[in-house]
Amino acid sequence: MLRTAVILSLCAACDVGALPGHGPDGSTGGDGSSAICEQLNVTPPAGHHNDGMGCMTNSQCHNSALGLGLNAPAYAYGGTLYKDSAGTQKFAGATIFVKLGGTEKKVITADNGNFWITQGAAGLDPPSITMQAQTRASGCPDTASMVGPLQQGGGNCNNCHRNGGTTSPIHLP
């Protein structure tokens, strides 16, 4: 356990990528989590637009500091999940978990692979200097945790996790 904590504390990069999954029988995979995989949702919500793009990168999107778009709520977390590391096959109906402090929220990926969590009481605050978030993606038979914590400004997942970004698109094998 101590070795895992030391390794995670040294990791600056993040990749939700290819880690062994958890079987429906509760067997654990290689990410050290005791979580059981989540069954896929056969009726995922409708994804609206801009899969693969940073949800909070530009004005008129989901970043209140830059100016929200028409009917666009402020997001604390948002991104796109794929079935492959190249980011070509969107993953609908999987579950994204984000834990900040003692609060964990889960959200189902939309039909275009997008996921989002709003700010405030109904959602979850973004990561800060004092509170880092942990995240994982799950869709049986696979589950994968992000290697390091989300730090301040880290809720805009597609900002890093994209082709040409600092790490590969978020994916489950």
Overview in brief:
The protein has 173 residues and is mainly beta. The chain has 2 helices and 7 strands.
Number of helical segments with 4 or more residues: 2
Binned, the helix content reads under 10%
Number of DSSP strand runs? 7
Radius of gyration: 15 Å
SSE order, as H and E? HEEEEEEHE
What's the story with the biggest beta sheet? Answer: 4 strands, antiparallel
Q: Can you give the mean pLDDT?
A: 75
Q: Outline the low-pLDDT stretches.
A: 1-34
Output the structural class.
Answer: mainly beta
Q: Into which percentage range does the β-strand content fall?
A: 15-25%
Number of domains: 1
**Distance, first to last CA:** 26 Å
Q: Which sequence of strands runs across the widest sheet?
A: 3-2-5-6
